[in-house]
Amino acid sequence: MLKVTDVGKAYGKFTALEDINLEVADGEFLAIMGPSGSGKSTLINILGLLDQSYTGEYLLEDKSYKDVNDNELSQIRGDQLGFVFQNFKLLTTYSVYENIEVPLIYSKKAQHNKHELVADVIKKVGLDGKEKNLPSELSGGQQQRVAIARAIVNRPKLIIADEPTGALDSKTSKEIMDIFTKLNQAGTTIIMVTHDSEVAEYAMRTVYIRDGHLYNDEKSVKNHD
Amino acid sequence: MTDKILIAFKSIGKNKNRNFLTMLGIIIGIASVLCILAIGDGFTHTMTKGMGNHDTRNKITIAYEPTTDVSTDNGFTDNDADILSKIPGVNRVKLASSSAEASAKASYKAKTTSIGLNKQPKHLKLVKGSYFTMDGSDNGIYISESLAHKLFKENAINRLITIDGSVFVVQGIYSIGSMEYRPDAYVAKKTFKELFSNQIFKDQAKLYLEAGSNKKQIGKTAVKKMKSLGEQKNTGKYSVSNPDAISKQFTRILNDVTYFIAFVAGISLLIAGIGVMNVMYITVSERRKEIGIRRAFGATSSDIRNQFLIESVVLCVIGGIIGIIFGYLLVSIINAFLPFKAVITGYAIILSLSVSTAVGLIFGFIPSNKAAQSELVGLLKEE
Ligand SMILES: Nc1ncnc2c1ncn2[C@@H]1O[C@H](COP(=O)(O)OP(=O)(O)O)[C@@H](O)[C@H]1O
Ligand SMILES: [Mg+2]
């Protein structure tokens, strides 16, 4: 699915990422763990083509998007990627239905069945009957389901989730993780950032970030310390 | 497109008060624009209608005015018309009369004089004789005191008078007040029509010009030609009569009013535009999170720019529509004070809407561009 070679990222003098090497196979469910400020979001933004200013090489499905123009980049984000964020990032004045519909508005894929697509994902995340509600009328878990529905409505190959359970209690987190597991079993590749090891257990593989460096297991992180 | 406009309506609806205040400037501006156009259109409409001719622009009128007291047979003759029509740029010439009076020669015994003649009016106060309505076969005539004095020394009543070969009997004498205008004689209506209607005094020559010809120049040439060749050059004077002259002063006042309203319109549209820009800047910075979300889910930077541009235009067009309604009411009020009727044309409405759209586009452009150009990662950090 994707291959990262010697990627680095600096904010001015501050090095947020250094020498990152990572390969993710199709259909994999990868967890990225690390303490706050370690560079998890920075990495995942690069992987999600949200941030283009990095050094090194990043190939998504064997293609580098470093010098691709904004329009093409936006299209790839809309059609091939799905994002889930810690704080849901829903449009607060739009209904559940309208929030989920957003990626379809901008998609270049021909869609005659927009309504069906939305109804389908609403069922998948278990929000039947909530179509007309505003996000503020939903619980945190329900809001995150809306965000997941929005991320998958365009049937992306890769879901990128940045601390999707960060704002949820452990019971709700479990429900959300069950949805992710189901999506992964259906063939979607998932990269998920978390600092909760219980949540990370849902993934097939976990990598660790500390101070901008990536480690493949916890032991090497400890050695680093 | 409709869904994008709906999104715009929704976003505008979210901040009704703020957006309405922003619209006020546009409402005033557009109402003023509409008033200007309505007054202008109404004025030209009235002017062209008043002339009874739609191509007044290609017409000039040469007027003849006798200098001696009613001593001419005629103003312009067919000969004169012929001369005038040969002036380069003139298509054709039509002779006309500003009054319905005919000119004729009246004689009694050896005395002959030129007179102005008209058909009998409904009421006429006589100093001598008795007034009655003459029918066509009647050869009666009423003459003025001065004509009576010229032709007859003593009593004129029941005397015979010859007018261009026809004999009439004087039935009464009327006096002409110093502030009054009357011809020298009146005959029966039918008689006038049968005998004298082709002798109506032609004191106007209307020149119809070729498109694009120099009105002023041709007018001058025509007057010059008549001064040297006109058959009545010795008994009267020729001049270019300007039908616009009456309205000229009025037009000037109107122009002043128009400039003032245009000034108000311009200023309020400028202020409105700045208001729109300001409100769009606020909107854009308030909605950084929304922009980030849309960008992450496939919106291109031009999608974002268009979204805010549409919003800005919709805001201005709503203001424009309210302004048109407001302007319509204003025009109704103005019409109570105008000597003509200001009219709102479809063109004025289209122009008003175009101006609102332009304000939205121009002043919404920079904020929308700012929204489109924002760094994505930064946007997604917003809460
Ligand atoms: N825009 C930025 N400018 C400067 N420093 C930044 C910026 N974004 C993140 N950082 C810094 O980079 C480091 C990694 O940030 P981030 O990837 O958000 O961490 P995480 O998601 O692991 O908590 C942090 O020390 C943070 O302060
Ligand atoms: Mg983070």
TrEMBL record, chain A:
One GO cellular component assignment for this chain's record is:
plasma membrane
Q: Which SUPFAM superfamilies match?
A: P-loop containing nucleoside triphosphate hydrolases
Which Pfam families does the record cross-reference, listed alphabetically?
ABC_tran
Recorded GO terms, molecular function?
Answer: ATP binding; ATP hydrolysis activity; transmembrane transporter activity
Q: Which SMART domains match?
A: AAA
Enumerate the Gene Ontology biological process terms: amino acid transport
Record keywords: Amino-acid transport, ATP-binding, Nucleotide-binding, Transport
Residue intervals of the ABC transporter domain: 2-223
Protein name as annotated: Peptide ABC transporter ATP-binding protein
TrEMBL record, chain B:
Ranges annotated as spanning the membrane: 20-39, 257-284, 313-338, 344-366
MacB-like periplasmic core domain mapped to chain residues: 20-196
List the source organism.
Answer: Companilactobacillus nuruki
Q: Which UniProt keywords apply?
A: Cell membrane, Membrane, Transmembrane, Transmembrane helix
GO CC terms of this entry: plasma membrane
Q: Which InterPro entries match?
A: ABC3_permease_C, MacB_PCD, Macrolide_Exporter_MacB
Major localization listed first in the record, in broad terms? membrane
Protein name (record)? Permease
Its annotated compartments are:
Cell membrane
Q: Which residues form the ABC3 transporter permease C-terminal domain?
A: 263-374
Q: Which GO molecular function, any one, fits this protein according to its record?
A: transmembrane transporter activity
Q: Which family does it belong to?
A: Belongs to the ABC-4 integral membrane protein family.
Bilayer topology: Multi-pass membrane protein
User: Domain of life of the organism in this record?
Assistant: Bacteria
